[in-house]
Each structure stands twice: as structure tokens, then as C-alpha cells.
Specification:
Helices cover 25% and strands 20% of the residues. By secondary structure, the chain is α/β, with parallel strands linked by helices. It has one domain: Zn peptidases (Aminopeptidase, 3-Layer(aba) Sandwich), CATH 3.40.630.10. Strands 3, 4, 5, 6, 9, 10, 11, 12 and 13 form a 9-stranded mixed beta sheet that branches. A two-stranded antiparallel ribbon has the order 1-2. The protein starts with a strand and ends in a 48-residue tail after the last helix.
Length: 361
């Protein structure tokens, strides 16, 4: 933990004393930076539907040091997955097949996605997917990278959305997919679209809402991809964030191939991708901790995302025009967009066709 104390000294330059205190955990001790999203703005939702504390409780649990950074194939990754499965069971979600764990193989790597659903009340044959990835990068330089924003924030948000929708049944069938292996090269989502559950044909999916890094909004904004890919989605996003102090930046398609919406995009399935992008100063570092998260901004962002979902769910037929780009064959890599500016993103995120070893960090 870092404290900065300034002593004003007449006629002299102020003296700044920096005290650094190591946390628990031996060599995995980390600094806990203090941060806030646009501290002059109170992001508190005017009429919140969801409570903030349960969201923060899930975020804390998923980003705890004993999860060891949740790297694909690690004991910490398995521990996080078990926690998610337990939460799905507590929430009363339904599994596809025999259980919530859905193993898939991509590039000879085994990933285990966690998938559950709530049946729709009036439009059960059509599906809206909420997705996020629960894996992270493990350690870096001998220090645990907790991955609070990347992507415990999206995973905890999906859990809270599932809890709210269980109590407020949706019109469409809503599937909750927490993917494994995103950091290795979108392995879990690529495996999912290649072999979806038999009861969930890809043709039944109207839209995918992917949440990847939605908490560390140091500029008070959230980027939204997919609104150019499927233009009729944009008014619903704009309206949802119109009542929020969180600023949405739609038509931000530079990140579209950098997270788990990309395999769906390759198959011309509409999507919305919510992400703080370069606004997160702690991306893939040991400083991406629970303590660093601006809690009210995170809560307000999730409220606006829920609002966007509700605006889509009430429509008997989602007004989704065909994508403006011509269809391309899945897996060819021909629909890679211009290189995105996401700082430090691995080149492997530009397409699953680029080999990538999960042992790399």
C-alpha cells in the first residue's frame, strides 16, 4: 500500500514522503494503488436496480490472491471456476446437458467454460448471450496479477445480472457464458462457437453482450463496440447510457477482435462489447486489484448495461439489420480489423488462427 504525505514548507519546495507497505503473501505481496474514476463526478445511479455490495463481493472473491491470477490450466483457475459453478447453482440457473462446466479444446488446449441459462417467458426460442472471461494471466515477475478489472469485473457483473434476471424473468432466453482461455487467444469462446451446446444453435442467438474490463473507468467512460457492425443496436445503447453519468463511446470498433465477441462476429452474429480499454492503467499488472477499482463507476456501468439489455429484451423481434460487411468464412482470419490501439494487447488477440501457447505470459 502506498501513502503520499505532503509537508508544506515555507520558502521551500514541498517535501513528499512516500511510504510503501508490503501486503501479505511473501514474494507475491503487491502494492494496492488508490484510484478513482473522475473523482469530481458522483456516478451513483439515480434509480438503481441492483445493489452495489453483492457486486463488489463477487469481484473481491474472484480477484483474491488465492485465485493466483486464474491462469488457464492452473489451480487458481480451477478454484475460480468452482466458485462460479457454485454461484450458478445458488442462483438457480439451468445447465445445458449434465452440468454447468462445458469443456472445449482449442489449439490442443483444454478450456472449461461455465454456461447456464434462464428460459424466456414470451420469446424462449430466441437467445441473448451475456459473456465474460474468468481466466487471467497468473503471475508476472514473481507477483500475482489478480485481474480485478481484467476480467473479474465482467465475470462478477454477469453473476449479478443472472441474479437480477432470475428474480425478474426475461422475455428472451438468456444464456450466461463465462469463458476460459481468453488470455491465451480466445480459446474458450472459439471452442464454444465451434461446438455449441446442442440445445443452443448459433442461429438462435440474436445478440451477444460481452463484458471485458468494465470497472477501471479512469476517464468516466466506457467504449462500446458492435454498434457499427450492427447499426440498429446503437440507439438502445445511447438511450441506456443517457440516464447515466457514465459516458458511452459507441462505434468504437477498434477492439472488436480483441475479446470473446470476435468468434461470434466472424459468424455474423450481432454483439455489443463493453470495455474501458486503455483507460485502465493497471492492465496485466499486479496492481489490477480489488482495492484499485472505483466501485461506484463500476456499479453505474453495470446498471447502464442492464438498461441496454432491458431495452432489447422487450422487443418481440430485435431490429437487427444484416452486418454491413460481407460474410466471410469462419476461421479464415479475413475479417481482422485495423490494428487496435489497446495498449500491450498480444498480437494473438487479432485472430484465433494465430498459434499461441498458453504457457506464455
Amino acid at each position: 500500500m502506498t501513502f503520499r504525505i505532503q509537508f508544506p514548507m515555507p520558502g521551500m519546495i514541498a517535501l513528499t514522503l512516500v511510504l510503501v507497505m508490503g501486503g501479505c503473501g511473501g514474494s507475491d505481496a503487491i502494492q494496492q494503488p488508490a484510484t478513482n474514476a473522475s473523482p469530481l463526478v458522483d456516478f451513483t445511479p439515480v434509480s438503481p436496480r441492483m445493489a452495489k455490495q453483492p457486486l463488489m463481493d463477487d469481484l473481491r472473491a474472484l480477484s483474491a490472491l488465492d485465485m493466483e491470477g486464474r491462469k488457464l490450466g492452473s489451480a487458481g483457475n480451477a478454484k475460480a471456476r468452482a466458485l462460479i459453478v457454485e454461484r450458478f447453482q445458488q442462483l438457480g440457473l439451468s445447465p445445458f446437458g449434465g452440468g454447468f462446466e462445458q469443456p472445449v479444446t482449442w489449439h490442443n488446449s483444454l478450456c472449461t467454460n461455465v454456461v447456464g441459462y434462464l428460459p424466456g417467458t414470451t420469446n424462449p426460442g430466441r437467445t441473448i448471450l451475456f459473456t465474460a472471461h474468468y481466466d487471467h494471466i497468473g503471475t508476472r515477475g514473481g507477483l500475482i496479477c489478480p485481474g480485478a478489472d481484467d476480467n473479474a469485473s465482467g465475470s462478477a457483473a454477469v453473476l449479478q445480472l443472472a441474479a437480477w434476471l432470475k428474480a425478474h424473468p426475461p422475455a428472451h432466453t438468456v444464456v450466461f457464458c463465462l469463458f476460459d482461455g481468453e488470455e491465451a487467444g480466445l480459446y474458450g469462446s472459439q471452442g464454444f462457437v465451434a461446438t455449441p451446446p446442442a440445445a443452443l444453435p448459433l442461429a438462435s442467438i440474436d445478440v451477444v453482450l460481452n463484458l471485458d474490463m468494465i470497472a477501471q473507468g479512469t476517464q468516466g467512460r466506457i467504449f462500446v463496440g458492435g454498434t457499427s457492425f450492427t447499426a440498429p443496436l446503437k440507439p438502445h445503447v445511447v438511450a441506456a447510457f443517457g440516464a447515466s453519468k457514465v459516458r458511452a463511446v459507441p462505434d468504437f470498433e477498434n477492439y472488436d477482435n480483441a475479446s470473446d465477441q470476435y468468434p461470434f462476429m466472424q459468424r455474423d452474429i450481432p454483439f455489443l462489447f463493453f470495455c474501458v480499454g486503455d483507460d485502465d492503467p493497471y492492465y496485466h499488472t499486479p496492481q489490477d486489484t480489488y482495492e484499485s477499482i472505483p466501485q461506484v463507476f463500476y456499479w453505474a456501468t453495470l446498471e447502464a448495461i442492464l438498461d441496454a439489455f432491458l431495452r432489447l429484451d422487450v422487443l418481440a423481434k430485435l431490429p437487427l439489420a444484416p452486418p454491413s460487411a460481407p460474410p466471410r468464412s469462419p476461421g479464415t482470419g479475413q475479417r481482422v480489423l485495423n490494428p487496435h490501439p489497446w495498449r500491450h494487447r498480444r498480437d494473438s488477440k487479432l485472430g484465433h488462427f494465430i498459434p499461441f501457447s498458453p504457457s506464455e505470459g
